[in-house]
Amino acid sequence: MNFESGYQGLKTSADPQRWSAQKEVLTDEKLVIEGHPVMERWETPYMGAFAALVTRHGGRILECGFGLGISAHAIQSYAPEEHVIIEANDDVFKRLIDFQNSAVNKVTPILGLACDVLESFSDQSFDGIFYDTYPLNADEQHTHQFPFIKKVYPLLKKGGILSYCNLTSTGVLKNRYDSWEALFNETQVPYLIEAGVPEKDIKGIIIFKVYPPTDCLYFQHKTAMIPIIVKE
Question: Whole-angstrom Cα distance, residue 162 to residue 48?
Answer without folding.
Answer: 15
